[in-house]
Structure formats: C-alpha cells, structure tokens
Amino acid sequence: MKAVEVKRRDQRLDIAKGLLIGLVVLGHLLEGTNVWSATTVRLPLTLIYAFHMPAFAFLTGITGTPKNLVRRVGPLLVLLVLFQFLYFGATRVLKPGAEFEWDTPFWMLWFLVAMIWWLLLTPIIDKFPRASIAVSTALAIAVTAVPWIGYPLSLGRALVFLPFYAVGYAYGKRVLDWCMSSTKVLKGVTVAGAASALMVLYFAHLKHEWFYGSLSADSLDANPAEGLVIRSALLLAAGLGIMAFLMLVPQRESPGLAMVGRHTLPVFLLHGFIVLGAELYLPAVLARNNVVALAFVVTLTAATVLLTSGPRTNAVMRTISGYFFKPSTQQANKKNSKLQTASS
User: Fold this and answer.
1) How many domains does the structure of the chain reveal?
2) What's the Rg (C-alpha) of the chain?
3) What is the residue range of 139's domain?
C-alpha cells in the first residue's frame, strides 16, 4: 500500500515540476538548433536528457492513485486523440512529407500514452510496491535487448521509465523529504556525483537516442550485452540526477514557478507548435554564433512557458479533456448529499 497519501498540494512538487517543464521546452528548442551535432549544444542537452523525463515520471508517481482510473485515463485519451490530429495538421503544413503513423504518438505525446500505461499498472504497484519496483527495473533493462521494441504505443519509453514512476508512487514523498532535508555535505557529494556521471555520459559520445528510451540496442548499433550495460548505467545516472535535482530545488516560496508547475500539462502539449515553427530558423541562428543561439533559445523557452502556462489556458485544457468524463448530475447530487450528511 502507498505509505504516504498526498492530501493537499505540495508546493515543492509544483516548483520541481515548473523547473522540469522549463527543461523540457529548453531541450526541445536546443534539439531544434542542430539535433545534438554542435558541441556547445550537446553538453546542456546531455544534462537535460540524462534525468528530466525520469524525474517527471518520478513526480508523476508521487501524485498517482489507483482510484477512479476511468476518470483519470479518459481525459488523457481525449487529449491524445485531439493533439494527435492537431500535430498531424501542423506537420503537414510546416514539414511537408513528414511521416505520420496513427499507432505512434507524435513526438512529445508519447508521455500521455506512457502515463496511461503507468496509471493502469498503478493498482498492481499499490499492492506489491517492492516487487513492482524490482520487476519494472528488470524490464527497463531487459527491454533493451528486444529487437522489435520501438515508438509504437510508446511501449519502449513506458517500460524504460516505469521504475521511476513506481519508486515515485511507493516512496516518492519519503525521497522528496529526505532530499530536501539533507545536510549541505550530503547535497554537495550527491551533486558532485551527478555531475561526474553527466561528464562520463558526455564524453562517452553515446548516440542521443539512448536517452529517449525508445529503441532497442540492435536499432542503436549495439549488441544486447552492450545495451544492457548502457541502459543500466543510464538508469543509475538518472536516479542520481533526480536526487541531485531535488536537493537543489528551492525550498522558499516561489509563486511563479509553482503556478507553472500546476499547469505543466498545457505547456507540455502546446509548446510543440512553437518548437515546430522555430525549428525552421534555429539552425541559422546557431550558424551565426553559439552563444547568441543559446541566449536566444533560453529567452524563447521562458516566453513559451509564460505563454502556455496561464490559468485560463489550463482551465480550457481541463475543460476539453474532462468534458466526456464529468460525473453525472445524479452522481454529483449523491456525493453532495453524503458531504452534507457527514458535516451535519
């Protein structure tokens, strides 16, 4: 059973999510400059991709629940179908000839599908937390040796990042408390260890697709044994990176970051349109000056996050996603009746 229930919103989670969604947007814009080929861009990309999606899976696990799965999965399906169509139209306009497959989520939409898989597995994780963590870790490593694993249905990524969701669900609140209450010495050692792991990954010159968690070792020109070692190393580096990140998350109140963290879904779903448009011009910016390109991308990241994280945008998104999954009037009246009885 889940050891700690999150009954009210934890601002630490919101701040952490706000920082992470900024890294997501920044990473996608940096990729748009040259797709990992410039040294100036490859270092920050390695830093971001080494831990940011495992960290999101971990934080998603903290707020996961095995209850009301239909009402939690349903809105995700609505958004998946809607944005699959919208991005299909956008790519046809901006990138004529781009391939598009209906069983493969478009780009960042893989995370919606992965969340659906994780939510469906949550009752099992809730009942067998330790076994679920052990099995999911073994699967995350072993799936690297499966030659047919890939982008369809986001199976590869869902399995590779599942251990982080499972740990977040079962022990995430404890890990969060421990990281944020650690001594300065422990924080320094952890951050130094994470930085060392990052530099090892950077100088290893791995194919950047390894960080995506989508493809098999065979698809990345590695034999199964090499793939198992690389995936194990990446999982360890991601875990260390998550701890270092949580230790560095500001503990003082930060209303702006907290608001962004509460509205990560619209940022995640909408920023892709801005990135698609910017990709047409970003390589030219990089060709002029690396420093200017980085400054431009950071500025565009901040503008994108601010533009897409507003309360109204979030409200519209939630209204659309939850339209078909509202409780019926009869259910709502019954629930209100119970609340009134309990309070009387």
Assistant:
1) 1
2) 20
3) 11-343
Query: Long-range contacts of range 152-155, CB-CB < 8 Å, 24 or more positions apart?
Result: 152/101, 152/103, 152/104, 153/103, 153/104, 153/105, 153/113, 154/105, 154/110, 154/111, 154/113, 154/114, 154/117, 155/117
Distance from the Cα of residue 325 to its chain's centroid? 24
**CB contact at 8 A, 298 and 335:** no
**Token duo for residue 213:** 């968690």
Q: Residue 108 domain-assigned?
A: yes
* Any domain includes 4: no
Question: How many residues comprise the chain?
Answer: 344
Q: Is the pLDDT of residue 34 over 60?
A: yes
- Asked whether residue 150 is domain-assigned, the answer is yes
Contact between residue 116 and residue 81 where contact means Cβ atoms under 8 Å apart: no
CB atoms under 10 Å from CB of 100, counted, come to: 12
| Lowest model confidence (mean pLDDT) among 18-27, 42-51, 161-170, 277-286 | 277-286
Model's pTM, two decimal places? 0.88
Of the segments 30-34, 297-301, 315-319, which one has the largest average pLDDT value?
Answer: 297-301
Least confident of 14-18, 164-168, 331-335: 331-335
Does 225 reside within a domain? yes
